[in-house]
Amino acid sequence: MIPAVMPTYARWDVAADHGEGPYLYAADGRKFLDFTTGIAVTGLGHCHPHLVAAVREQAGRLWHVSNLFQIPGQERLAQRLVDHSFADTVFFVNSGAEAVELTLKVARKYQSATGHPERSRIIGCEGSFHGRTFATLAAAGNEKYLDGFGPPMPGFDHVAFNNLNEMRAAVGKETAAILVEPIQGEGGVRAPSPGYLRGLREIADEHGLLLLYDEVQCGMGRTGRLFAHEWEGVAPDVMAIAKALGGGFPTGACLASERAAVGMVSGTHGSTFGGNPLAVAAGNAVLDVMLEKGFLSRVQAMSEALKRRLEGLVRSYPKLFAELRGAGLLLGLRCLVPAGEIVARLRQEGLLTLTAGDNVLRILPPLILGEREIDEAITILDKVAARWPA
Description:
By secondary structure, the chain is of the alpha/beta class.
């Protein structure tokens, strides 16, 4: 008999009960150091006091009215995102997949509004992940996630990630835009070579395309800057964000330049829940913390400390780990044994981690990470590695 909750997840034997900072507590009393952060969502850790207070206060005033009304908190959050990014305008949604969907729509609408309706195809990258809707699955092109759902939605082409020659060769008369994750998460925690984003920008500008970024996982402070692409200094035309934007409250956003959003006029898109008072209260509270002086520089310092310790682990256990990947606090250890088995043993010892493509052990600590948590995590990793069968 099928369970009441549709059985689409291979769930762990952990019934989450409550959390505090970097720690998650199970209903049976077990305590875990949480380096999954809800898959890069609880960037401020669990139950951050400022976030709790902001959502609690808003919940006592107004939850939802729909976008028929002006929502002051939404306008404030949009302006803050504009002030701290390349963007001129923001549309709020409920999830990362919705943010990417709208990013694709903005690109197609731009081409149509500027006299090129034939330009509708999007070039994506192999190994990417953009969500579970029909369009976002097609944009990524991963057969594992497409299997059984019929023919993929048309309009997408795919090239190797981090390969500018393939990207340039794929551009055709019907190409509208290029879609890329500045750092791939699900696909194996892969950061591109220096200059890759610059090269994509040049290709897009040369051919009249829009450059689209998916920073759903790598954005919102995860790399030590508010957005990952800031390290290269290469702005997109449109960008999807979500996950850590709400600190655990479901919300996302599509950011766009004025030029790119030329076709997005009244009636072209909508959302019942997107940007409702509760969601934007959470988003504003998250930005309150992330934009505090010194917050992101501390993330950078802790990420460097963690990377040094993980590099030492790779050197100590060359039969288990091949390399360290990623940037900031989006890190991955490519494993030489099944990564899922290491994740399971780490969980038994009290450290929660994830897997990713290419047999990678994915590490996503909260941005409030400190030296104590780094020491604790490395101690557990070393313990599991040392006991691994020869």
